[in-house]
Amino acid sequence: MPKAPRRWRLMHAPAASGAENMARDAALMDHARNTGEHVFSVYSWTRPTLSLGRNQTARGRYDLDEAARREIDIVRRPTGGRALLHWREVTYSVAASSEDDSLRESYEQINAIVLYGLRKLGVDAAEAQGGPRTPSPGDLPCFAAPAEGELVTNGSKLVGSAQVRENGALLQHGSILIRDDQSLIADLLREKSSAAEVPRAATLADAMGREPTLDEVARALFESVKALEDADATAMDAAEVQDLTEKHLEQFQNPLWTWRK
Q1: Alpha helices of the chain — where are they, by DSSP H?
Q2: Integer CA distances (angstroms), 106 to 11, 100, 131, 172, 180, in order
Q3: Predicted local distance difference test score (pLDDT) of residue 107
Q4: How far is CA 250 from CA 22, 80, 84, in A?
Q5: For this structure, is 43 an active site residue?
Q6: Count of CB atoms within 10 A of residue 85's CB?
Q7: For residue range 90-114, what is the model confidence (pLDDT) as tens digits?
Q8: Residue 131 pLDDT > 60
């Protein structure tokens, strides 16, 4: 039996702190659970921010004085995966009901949207074949190597992604590098030897021969949602979930969450 058409909303959120960005994504997950709408959000960060995976062991492993000296904030995501530096990249999230699709189906759906958008930008990307499906959360950065199904170009990882499912809703985070400054993550570790030498990640700047703007990438991704999922997808303002965002903000500002393990 064919699935009912899904209604999609498109949000280009203003730059915000790490805690605010994560709280808004948690709010969008609530919104998807309550309304059945799917929301594709694109956003940026007011300061360089290291985001930790939900289940990543991080307490005591990072030099907080060095992070402060470099003016790098630290936040823990509600989704899994490894550490990622958000700055010269494009972050997107998808919040949706999880009642109709399996984990694999939702990954494939979101991958298809992102691939279509990348190709509109002239980027020859594809899904990685082989490798672990879910790499263990460790000290290596998110872009050290692609997991099976993640998006790559010329064999190097271009898009990092992770998903969480709770109470009938899902949230998937994704990051597309514009420039590769992920090596800074190793500089923040107390034990430098624990971060092995990792290959250089793929970037939009290399793939396109220039640096695209955030607006340009967001437009390509939103056009992809309309082409593949919902031709009538409408814009959504962050103000629509501001009350829900504020309810989640304390969690992501709380050091007990950031350094939970």
Answers
A1: 18-35, 64-69, 103-120, 184-187, 204-208, 214-228, 242-253, 255-258
A2: 19, 9, 20, 9, 27
A3: 87
A4: 11, 20, 22
A5: no
A6: 24
A7: 999 999 998 777 888 898 999 999 9
A8: no
Q: For the chain, what is the mean pLDDT?
A: 90
Specify which residues 96 forms β-bridges with.
170
Please report, for residues 13, 93, 129, 244, the alpha-carbon distance to residue 40 in angstroms, rounded to integers and kept in the order given.
10, 6, 26, 17
116: Cβ–Cβ under 8 A, 6 or more apart, which residues? 224, 227, 228
Which backbone phi and psi does 39 adopt, to 5 degrees? -125, 125
Contact 137, 80 (CB under 8 A): yes
* Annotated active-site residue in 90, 142, 162, 164: 142
**DSSP 3-state of 187:** helix
C-alpha distance from residue 244 to each of 36, 101, 132, 240 (Å) = 16, 25, 35, 9
Q: How far apart are CA 175 and CA 87, in angstroms?
A: 10
Give the chain's length: 261
pLDDT at residue number 42: 98
Sequential DSSP letters for 110-153: HHHHHHHHHHHTT---EE--SS-SS----SS-GGGSPPTT-EEE
pLDDT higher than threshold 90 for residue 147? no
> In whole angstroms, how large is the CA radius of gyration of the chain?
17
DSSP state of 62: B
Question: 3-state DSSP: the chain helix, strand, coil percent, rounded to 5?
Answer: 35, 25, 40
What is the value of pTM for the model shown?
Answer: 0.91
